[in-house]
Each structure stands twice: as C-alpha cells, then as structure tokens.
Amino acid sequence: MKAAVFREYNKDPTKIVKIEDIDVPKIKSYEVLIKVESAAYNYNDLWAIWGEPVKTPLPHISGSDIGGTVVEVGPDVQKIKVGDRVVSHSNMSCRVCYECTSGREYDCNERTIWGFQTGPLWGGFAQYTHLPEVNVVKIADNVSFNDAAAVSMVGMTSWHMLVGRAKIKPGQLVLIMGGGSGVGMVGIQIAKLYNCTVIATAGNKDKMDKCMELGADYTVNHREADWYKKVREITKKIGQPGGVDVVFEHIGKSVFPQEVGLLKMGGTLVATGATTGYDSTIDLRFLFFKGTNLLGSTQGTKAELEDVMYWVSKGKIKPVIDTILPFSNMVEGHVMMANAQQFGKILTTPQKL
Q1: I need a surface site. Which of 74, 92, 174, 270 has the fewest CB within 10 A?
Q2: 141: buried, middle or exposed (CB in 10 Å: 19+, 13-18, 0-12)?
Q3: 12, 88, 93, 190 from 40: Cα distances, Å
Q4: Distances from the Cα of 1 to the Cαs of 23, 240, 297, in angstroms?
Q5: What is the phi-psi region of residue 313: left when phi exceeds 0, alpha when psi lies from -120 to 50, beta otherwise?
C-alpha cells in the first residue's frame, strides 16, 4: 500500500515526507482494518515532523483523523462489521484505570494521540490503517468521508470544551477566540446549536466574515491592540455589561489576561491550547472577587465524538473544508498549515494518487 512516511525530523516537511510502498498492516484480535478514504491534517502533524515538542516514533506515519470503510475485523471485535463506514477516535487510553472508568479517558496516564504519538508506521496518512474497535465510531450514510475526517478531532475537542467542561446553557453569551481555527469554527456552531449569542474573534477581515457565515453574531479582530475593548463595547450594547458567560480559549499568552477580565461574575474560561505561549499572567483579583471558573480541556470522549457526528448527520454542525489534496502531493498540506494559509480543514485522499 502507499503511505506518507518520514524517517527523520526536519523543519521542512518537503524534505522528508515521502510516499512509500509499505506492507498493509496486520491487525490484532481486537482491531479493525480500515480503507482510508479521507484524512485530515492537524497541527500535531507538524510537531511530529519537527520532532518538537516531543519526539515521535520513527519511521513515522502521521494523521489522526480519518474517514473510511472497514475491510477486516479481528476475532474479538463485536460491534463493528466489514463494510461499516467509520471515523477515527484518536484519543487512545487504557480503558481500565480509574480515570477511564470514570468517563475521563482523556485524563488517562497512558493516553496517547493516535497518528502523533503512535508508531512506528501507525497513522492515518496511508491507504490502509488499523485501530482498536473502541477507537472507531460509525458514521451515517449521509455523512461523507471528507466531512467525517474534517470534523472528528476538532469537533470532539470543541464539544468537550463547551458542553463537557463549560456546560453551556441556552441564552449565554459566548466568546469564541480564534473563530477561524479548526476548533473555533466548530465552537461557533456548537454555541449556536445551544442558542447562545456568539462573539467570535479572528485575525483578519476575511476570516471575520466567514465566522459570521458560520453563525457568529458579532466579530472582533484579536490582532488589534484594543480588541478586548471592542468585546466590552458589544457586551454593553446587548445589555450584558458585566461581561461574557463563557470564553472559549486556545490562543494563550497574548490574550489570556484580557480574556479573564472580560468574564462576568461567576463566568467560565475553558482552555485547550496556547499557540502564542504558555507563560501568561492574570490579575488574581478577577479570580477570587468574581468567582471565576478557569477550566482546562483536552481532546474528549468517544461518546462526545458520537454526539458531534450525530449533529453533523442532522446538518446542524457543518465541517468546513478548505482544500482536498491528492495523495501524491499531500505534503503541500503540511506547508499550507505551517503558513496558516487555510480557512477550514485540509484533507488528503489516500486512494486517489
């Protein structure tokens, strides 16, 4: 089979990611073999190529989000059948520890992200891949493989942030930071699914307009120095001068102190990343005087992925796809992502060279 393989680390993906012929994987008794129809890019694919911030197993196949068809099942597989249309659940955990059996598999001490930390040669950028039965979710016939791959990780992550952690309620005012990002685009739609009022931020006018198309009620450019003042003006304009109920955060150092200051009394900030840096500061008075809730969030549960795929099948969450690349030049997707050229997910189709 064909697979996108790299055998060393390098800052330039074009120098090391090559389409190679390798053996079709042999599955274990509890695994399924999947014919990969579509695979989506994530930033962790670049981390894997760079070898930073963690060293990934070499030789390596990246790719954590795939949609495809099951072509073989192990003898211990019970729920998944040959011919099932599935999407990957990339959060791999032991399933037996206290955290896992408490419904917190994302907190498992043995948790790894499939396609990033797994290997050697175990990821989604290949014509065939294998996963444990517990790491695949069936998708409805009206959900395309491209849509499934595009939404799986960002959808699950966003759902866990807003529904699982922040526990949003209808009518709340939600600030979606980085609304043009993968998680941000889904975050806007989840908040609107809950009938919330949404203020979305983005880094330029084009992305701000596209956030509005996704359902945001207001947009602000977070690259402007006074962006938080503009958010405050909106909250006053709509009759909520105390601030926002929920901040959806993944930008980090450059905006974090202002985000905390924008929360209303008892408001909640839920964070899943820090792309501009980790070493931020906050005014602690906002924390204790205002009863602020600061929540961390990472990945999500298989059940949350199933929730997302249900709403995709109902047309209430619409995956946003920027580019679909043939597998022969799939490395272009890594370059696009490194340069932040896209609005929406970048996909590749391993069966189409």
Answers
A1: 74
A2: exposed
A3: 19, 11, 21, 20
A4: 6, 57, 37
A5: alpha
Q: How confident is the model at residue 281 (pLDDT cuts 50, 70, 90)?
A: confident
Residue 304 — φ and ψ, nearest 5°? Answer: -70, -35
Give yes or no for residue 40 having a pLDDT over 90.
yes
How far is residue 83's CA from residue 111's CA, in Å, rounded to a whole number?
A: 29
State the chain's mean pLDDT as an integer. Answer: 95
8 Å CB contact between 58 and 8: yes
Taking residues 22-47, what's their average pLDDT? Answer: 97
Residue 273 clears pLDDT 90, i.e. is over it: no
119-151: per-residue pLDDT in tens? Answer: 999 999 999 999 999 999 999 999 999 999 999
Q: Output phi, psi for 160, to 5 deg.
A: -65, -40
Dihedral through CA 235, CA 169, CA 273, CA 259, nearest 10? 20
Percentages helix, strand, coil for the chain, rounded to the nearest 5?
30, 25, 45
pLDDT per position as a tens digit, 313-348: 999 999 999 999 999 999 999 999 998 778 889 999
Q: How many residues does the chain have?
A: 353
How far the first Cα of the chain sits from its last, in Å, is 12
Strand partners, 66: 39
- What would the two tokens of residue 304 be? 């949350």
Question: What pLDDT does residue 53 have?
Answer: 86
Tell me what pLDDT residue 152 has.
96
Note the pLDDT of residue 189.
98
Which pLDDT score, from 0 to 100, does residue 16 have? 97
Separation between Cα atoms, residue 155 and residue 149, nearest integer Å: 10
Q: In sequence order, what DSSP letters do the residues of 19-55 get, joined into one string?
A: EEE-PPPPPPTTEEEEEEEEEE--HHHHHHHHT-SSP
Neighbours of 346 (CB within 10 A): 25
CA angle (245, 248, 250) in 5-degree steps: 150
**How far is 300 from 310, CA to CA, in rounded Å?**
15
